[in-house]
Write a structure and sequence with these properties.
The structure is a homodimer. By secondary structure, chain A is an alpha/beta fold. Helices cover about 55% and strands about 15% of the residues of chain A. Chain A has two domains: about 5-165, Rossmann fold, CATH 3.40.50; about 170-290, N-(1-d-carboxylethyl)-l-norvaline Dehydrogenase, domain 2, CATH 1.10.1040. Chains A and B meet through strand 9, helix 9, helix 10, helix 11 and helix 12 of A and strand 9, helix 9, helix 10, helix 11 and helix 12 of B.
């Protein structure tokens, strides 16, 4: 039995292109979001408009949640009654980034209602979402994964089954964000040191990018660290949040994460400088101020 | 005028294959090292044996130093009198990893003796040294670089002229080592978190290595973190030293380097656990002990 009717809640920068991809794959997609223009865009792509989260869930085989965090997922499922509206045996797929313990708690409440659950956070950004080329880190019993496989494979081209237990998908995403955040802050630390030594930024990126010092983030964020006003690809405050989730997960597991903690402080400092909405490459500004340049 | 006669001091894991490459390129190479077998290997490759650093320097157009650190370079140049033995107008090329301030001090003493100096640390490891494929980060006036270019291009295939001032080559290398060391420690932190969550290490490396979390170090050191006794490619104590140089340079420049400092503590902890001579991927063992696994 493969899923035919899909409810989709959260039609933001990620969720809207994901829901559109499902609609184009001939799924019946009932989407809900508070933003009218997102609903209109989904309808134009062949999807359907729901007037509430509960209506999106009504009669659905699968309910996909691409909301901002675990608190919003809980609000949709329980306060807005989407969970109790879903048919018995339906599957909830949570694709938002959330802390592993929060995801496990949501799964437990859904199980009590006779609902299946897939913990399936993603990486790949809006580009991957639009192209149907997300990386999906899915945790659930194998039979549950198989039931929603056609849905997941319409959204991503790299589907990893990382474990049987809800929260393990979130744990993989958390570890992923740990490295992403630390790599951006480490690059900022390195570039601030290079600038203080009077070295040319572009030449530094060329040298480091071709050596053992290289990283995906160096090639992506490095050039933006040399721009005064880079386009915002992902904001400083996203890593204030995501490294916060990393540290919360570490605290829950009684696990010391000294580099993540130091990196988080630098994103916090950048946010405290008023740069929370700027591109996350701007964490280098916090280092520059520490290096003696007056704040702009 | 291109260099014909080269003195080469320091025929270790890096220096020996570098000196052999020069001998094979038809330079006259007089090598010196305390290890007899290294001298024999150089002679077999067409080089010449010197009985002291001063003899290696005698009549040389270029004296290359590939010793362990700045203290050894000073000992060779000044205590062992290689500098005063060099002909006036000869060029000293320091390729060892040293702190920028130490390199600048050596350059100043050599200038007082009428000698030119190129600050030219390398990256690429023994593999790059053997293949003549090192990355060379050279700082010196342009004319000096041009004079030794044939020598440098026999040793590396990526020659960057990073500045005019001695110490700037060392600064680039320092920034490079900052990222290398932080990336290894960050990966260890990530893998320890994944293990604590019960996630499969190989699968984690596959997921992270194909995402924005990827780094050169993840692909190189990651698999070794999953081995009990990996071959020693570079030892834990090398990063105790190199991140120590990074932090010394930061201190000299009054520059806070919070991630480097945290990473250094983890390499120190691994060394304190008795793992200083093990492969640097073993820094993950320090995290594992912090995560609650009894020390082995």
């Amino acid at each position: 039995m493969s899923a035919k009717k899909i409810g989709f809640v959260g039609l933001g920068a990620m969720g809207l292109p994901m829901a559109i991809n499902l609609a184009r794959k001939q799924f019946h997609v009932a989407g809900f979001d508070l933003r009218e223009e997102a609903l209109a865009a989904l309808v134009e792509a062949g999807g359907h408009r729901a007037v509430s989260a509960a209506e999106a869930a009504s009669g659905a085989d699968v309910l996909v949640l691409m909301v901002v965090n675990a608190a919003q997922a809980e609000a949709v499922l329980f306060a807005a009654r989407a969970a109790e509206t879903l048919p018995k045996g339906a599957t909830v797929v949570l694709m938002a980034t959330a802390a592993p313990a929060q995801v496990a708690a949501i799964a437990q409440r859904l199980a009590a209602l006779g609902l299946d659950f897939v913990d399936a956070p993603v990486s790949g950004g809006t580009k991957g979402a639009t192209a149907g080329a997300l990386t999906i880190m899915a945790a659930a019993p194998k039979a549950t994964i198989e039931r929603v496989r056609p849905v997941l494979e319409s959204l991503g081209d790299k589907l990893f089954h990382v474990g049987e237990t809800p929260g393990q998908g979130a744990a993989v995403k958390t570890v992923n964000q740990l490295l992403c955040g630390v790599h951006i802050a480490a690059l900022a630390e390195a570039m601030a040191m290079a600038e203080k030594a009077g070295l040319d930024g572009k030449l530094m990126l060329q040298i480091l990018g071709g050596s053992a010092a290289s990283s995906w983030m160096l090639h992506d964020r490095g050039p933006r660290m040399l721009e005064a006003e880079p386009v915002v690809s992902s904001a400083v405050d996203i890593f204030v949040k995501d490294l916060g989730i990393v540290l919360d997960a570490g605290r829950a597991a009684k696990l010391a994460l000294p580099l993540s903690a130091a990196a988080h402080q630098m994103f916090l400092a950048a946010s405290g400088m008023g740069l929370g909405g700027k591109d996350d490459s701007h964490v280098v500004e916090a280092y520059r101020v520490l290096a003696g340049r007056p704040p702009t």
